[in-house]
Each structure stands twice: as C-alpha cells, then as structure tokens.
Amino acid sequence: MKTIGVLAFQGGVIEHVKKIEELGAKPQLVKKKEDLKNLDGLILPGGESTTIGKFLIETGLKDEILSLIHEGMPVWGTCAGAILLSKNIKNQGSGVLPALSIVIERNAYGSQLDSFKKEVFVPRFNIATECVFIRAPKIVEVAEGVEVLAELETPIAVLQKNILATTFHPELTSQNYWHSFFVENVVK
Ligand SMILES: NC(=O)CC[C@H](N)C(=O)O
User: Fold this and answer.
1) Which residue of 7, 90, 106, 139 has the fewest CB atoms within a 10 Å radius of its CB?
2) pLDDT given at position 112
C-alpha cells in the first residue's frame, strides 16, 4: 500500500487525508522529520504560504523535504503548496521549497471574496474537473520541461517530473481525478 504524507501544520489537511483513504492509500500526517520516513509521496496543502513556510523553516523540515524532492520523491502542492514549491514568486523572491521552475503570483484573482468554482477540461484526463479557487495564485510563467496539464487563461495545473502543482483545491470537491492522478501516475 502506498503511503502519502500530508504536511499538517495548517490549511486543508483533513480533506486531503480523506481523499487518500478513499483511494485505498495510507495517509501520514507530517509535522516533524521522522514523519517523512518511508513516504511514497507528499502533499503540501493550501492555507497561507507564509505561515506554512515559517513552520517548514522552524522545524527544519524545509531542508529535508527539499532534498527528498531532489532525490525524486513525488510531491504535490495545492494553492499555497504550489507557492511554496515555486522557484520564483512574483515580487517576493522564491518559495521555501524552490523546486518547480515557474513564476507564480500570489492572490492574483483578488481577495477572499473573489474566490470561485469552475469546471475546467483537462486533456490528460479527457474530462472536465471541478476547480475551486480560494485567494488563488496565478502561474504567470513556466520554464521548458514544465508540462501544463490544465489552463484557465493561464496554467492552473503543471507537472515537472516528480512535482505536481495546482493553483486550485481538488480536495474540496467530491471528485477524485487529481488525487488519483497523483497517487497512481506521479507516485509510481
Ligand atoms: N487557498 C490558498 O492556499 C491560498 C493561498 C494564499 N493566498 C497564499 O498566498 O498563501
């Protein structure tokens, strides 16, 4: 059985845990270095990227996770998680786990009130998936080697080898397409 970690400092943790269980994999809450042992993949949930970033630095998890990602551990950042993974945050330097070759802009759709839901067709799945955007970032540039999996004017889901990032929250819908893509195809 695959074990999928969920970074559990803050944000949409429980929703990801439920999806992992639904798919028959084993969730593992990650709060300290020991929790990273024997993971097949790791999810960085949405929340507030600056807050989660501070926890990553204070606990020393930042360096551990970054080296695991460089060694090929599959990782998926949703919303704030995608910001943490970005090599370039527009006007703000880089994410705390700068592994993904994109430029991302925080809160690019406006305030909490500008949060929205949209069905977006995903060519790789050949189906439209429901996407929930909450104070979402926008991916404004992708480097060569980064595959765009879904777009809503700008890329909203990208894959670079073992790194998946979505600017929306699939864990807040009743669908499992994105979780099963991560667990079955990104985690091997
Ligand atoms: N839903 C989310 O994860 C929002 C991300 C948040 N706006 C940030 O910049 O960290």
Assistant:
1) 90
2) 73
